[in-house]
Design a protein that fits this description.
Elements lengths: L4 H17 L6 H12 L4 H21 L1 H16 L6 H32 L2 H22 L14 H11 L9 H12 L3 H26 L7 H29 L5 H19 L6
Helix pairs in contact: 1-2, 1-3, 1-10, 2-6, 3-9, 3-10, 4-5, 5-7, 5-9, 6-8, 6-11, 7-8, 8-9
Catalytic activity: di-trans,octa-cis-undecaprenyl diphosphate + H2O = di-trans,octa-cis-undecaprenyl phosphate + phosphate + H(+)
Protein name: Undecaprenyl-diphosphatase
Subcellular location: Cell membrane
Amino acid sequence: MGLDILFIIKAIIMGIVEGLTEFIPVSSTGHLILTGSIINFQGKFANMFEVVIQLGAILAVVVLYWEKIKNSVIEFFTYICTKGKKGKVGFAFGINIIIGSIPAMIIGLILHDKIKSVLFGVGPVVIGFIVGGILLIVIENKFRKNKHSIRDIDKITPIDSFKIGCFQCLAMWPGMSRSASTIMGGWIAGLSTTVAAEYSFFLAIPAMVGSSALDLIKYDYSTMNLTYVLALIIGFVISFIVALIVMRKFIDYLKKRPMRVFAVYRIGAGIIFAILGFFKFISM
């Protein structure tokens, strides 16, 4: 089988969409589902492809925050080896990430297949866009300007982490957005917007790697061909590069402005796609 150029172009589009949307509060999975529906990039390979390019975006977190991740891992094991005499900060950070990951891990293991079969469609995504957008506005208005906001990621407590982890579970509904869900949980837990956003980046690593592992293990690799392999490589690299750029810009944006613009975009996009679905321009 020869190289399918049109398929590669579609893979490039999906990689760009993933990189643009993974770390801003608009739902990357929702956008991938909608984009895949529009450009007819669907099926078992497309589902696996989306998992791989999401890992490309996660790699951007590792690269951008390499020093923090490296130091935390070293301190985590130093704390254990020295029986608490050294590495307290890194150990506490690691424990927080573990605690924050537990709710999504439990629900994901129990309901992974059910969620995939019921919620991964255009209709649920459209509803998630609108509901998530409304929640983003309501929670930001109530909690964002908390005078007691935590402005240092190392000041987050295990209780804060658990609250945020519970909110992260909302992201299992495509369209709700993992970034938006964890940031909203961060606001409620008392985190400043930038700290909540950065914590959502770190919390994404175990959440996305764990979820992706389940999908990748189940995929039938006997169907792979040259086009598929090249699409995976290109999609992964593009999502990584775009996500790296977007993450930096996103944090700079949050230091100056609220997230209401993303909520308005979500609600507007949800309404537009609902109208398109109603008139049968897209399949709901």
